Amino acid sequence: MNYNLNKFTEKEQKISNYSAFSNLLKLISQERKNLAVALIAILLNSVLNLLGPFLIGYTIDHYVQHKQYHGVLIFSGILLGIYLVALFTSYFQTKLMGGVGQRTLFTLRNAIFSKIQQLPVAFFNQNKAGDLISRVNNDTDKLNQFFSQSLMQFVGNISTMIGAGIFLLVINYKIGIAALAPALLILIFTRILSPWVKRKNAANLKTVGNMSAEIQESLSNFKVIVAFNRRDYFRQRFQDANEKNYESAIGTGLANNVFLPFYAMCASIAQLLVLTGGIYLITQGEFSIGLLVSYLAYATYFYNPLRQLATLWANFQVAMAGWDRISEILGLETDLVTVPSTNAPGMHPALLEFRNVHFGYPEGKEILHNISLSLEKGKTYALVGPTGGGKTTTASLIARLYDPTQGTVLLNGRDIRSYDADERSQKIGFILQEPFLFTGTVKENILYGNPAYKDFSNEQLIEVIREANLEKLLAIFENGLETKVLSGGDSVSLGQKQLIAFMRAVLRKPDLLILDEATANIDTVTEQLLGEILEKLPESTTRVIIAHRLNTIENADEIFFVNSGEVTRAGSFQNAMEKLQQDVRMS
Ligand SMILES: Nc1ncnc2c1ncn2[C@@H]1O[C@H](COP(=O)(O)OP(=O)(O)OP(=O)(O)O)[C@@H](O)[C@H]1O
Predict the structure, then answer these.
(1) pLDDT at 103 over 70
(2) DSSP, residue by residue, 411-477
(3) For residue 295, what pLDDT is reported?
(4) What is the pLDDT of residue 81?
(5) Is the shortest distance between the CB of 447 and ligand 1 below 6 Å?
(6) CA nearest 183: which of 150, 154, 161?
(7) What is the mean pLDDT of the chain?
């Protein structure tokens, strides 16, 4: 399955504003009530504002022209009251929508983050962390801005426009039509240019994502960069990404502002038409000065929101481009689904079995060809073979980090896909080549993903550690369980990280324990200690050891040779060594 967000086809990406927006509204359905109240407030605000020009025109025709200043004062008072209530409705809806925006941001970030947590390893292989961070932080914020600042202005402006349009047409339809005619041009212009503006915004968000990916890559590899003196190279790479973002931002800025001058010109034309048409009709006795003043105000009420809509429409395009990028993630489903449990036919002495398994990484060639093997309970297996031969890939299939492209993996005679993630990870422990620690203490790290000991005190936990024969390993850490570790830092050595990962996996008491080069950075004395701990694991535990250091696999019951997509039984330790040396000589 294609999980590369930056390689989605046009068809996969193409989604109309309407469906994008309605999908978004579905996601924030709990805000419906607030949106409805804000909508009522903004509509009330528009109606109140729209009454102004009518009352002014009325006052001019009925009181000013007849010099009845008492009436002028009364109407001025009424207008002041109306404007004050309008101010309150405007404040109320701004406050309400500010909350909606922040909660939307909160909901979206949570939704994306938990979706990312559900996605399979293939998703992380195919996407850069920096780009994902940008989607979670930056793109969601575009939506927040839209909700907290633009949406209600958008609605308010549209309702003011519609109200002003009705007033214009009802009072005198001839001038009304003249006043509204330029709006048709605006409509056509907007429809034609909107897709282009949205594309520009989407491209711009992508460059922000790329830039963030560059920053992430160089920050997480800074030691290699310093050691190889590649600072200039990375500076250049960042500069290129920054430059692309800069160029795209300029183009997007222009695109976002393309509506404004055109809208302004149409508004001026409308004023001109109202003025000339109105004066002409006054000379014909069909119109009054008060109405002309009202009309000029209504034309302004119609075109000013339209002008603001130009900016808001651009904001809407930015928000929708952000939402498209967010929904690309939300729309992904893991292809590692749990299937109904069916027992495979045949006898099942094996704890784990590969039946005619083929595997290739997405967009790559096939790595494993038609592998059949079985691992029995309580035995120790070793996977040996040249670098890049496919050992980690085989182990990853055992732990179901990926599914085979063909064939089946069985755990206890059941398709491994029929176990839910909890059950599977409880049965299979995997110590990865690159151990990862979370910022916290040794205790937090060894208890990671192990709810059984969650509420244990240090004393109780030490007892558990002793029972698992891990106390000598714990003693290596200066402050024992309370030793501090940092996820990316060097507060503990690589070998110590491997020890923590080892303890983490052993304490889960898995049925099958995979060690992928798990002792590569550990001194020989400690390595012997690990060997002893492995020996003392419950009798039924199956061990799969991947190692380049051959002394680690001397005691294996069976050795598999993994090379060029084939997994073959290598026989005795001696045989395996000869085969390996022969293979290395040939390559
Ligand atoms: N995430 C991935 N995406 C694409 N190809 C991959 C990925 N991981 C590994 N490969 C490819 O699969 C092949 C087997 O890699 P694998 O890591 O399984 O080998 P290995 O035997 O464990 O090597 P080593 O001894 O160096 O750890 C290699 O050609 C590698 O380039």
Answers:
(1) yes
(2) ETTEEGGGS-HHHHHHHEEEE-SS----SEEHHHHHTTT-GGGTT--HHHHHHHHHHTT-HHHHHTS
(3) 87
(4) 94
(5) no
(6) 161
(7) 84
The DSSP 8-state label assigned to residue 341 in this structure reads P
CB 350 within 8 A of CB 375: yes
Q: Is the pLDDT of residue 119 over 70?
A: yes
d(CA 133, CA 286) in angstroms, rounded, equals 64
HSE, side-chain direction, 13 A CA sphere, residue 107: 17
117, 329 contact by CB (below 8 A): no
- Which pLDDT does position 356 carry in this prediction? 93
Residue partners of 18: CB distance under 8 A and separation at least 6: none
Nearest residue (CA) to ligand 1, atom 25? 387
Q: How far apart are CA 392 and CA 577, in angstroms?
A: 19
Domains of the chain by range and CATH?
Answer: 16-330 (1.20.1560.10), 350-586 (3.40.50.300)
What strands, in cross-sheet order, belong to the sheet with 512-516?
428-431, 512-516, 542-546, 380-384, 558-563, 566-569
Residue 120 in contact with ligand 1 by CB distance below 6 A: no
Minimal CA–CA distance to 52: which of 87, 21, 20, 22? 87
Q: Which two tokens stand for residue 543?
A: 């061990």
CA dihedral 453, 458, 464, 470 (to 10 degrees): 120
Q: What is the pLDDT of residues 292-325, one digit of tens each?
A: 888 888 888 888 887 777 778 778 878 888 888 8
Query: Which of 369, 393, 521 most suits a substitution to test ligand 1, by most atoms within 8 Å of the C-beta?
Result: 393
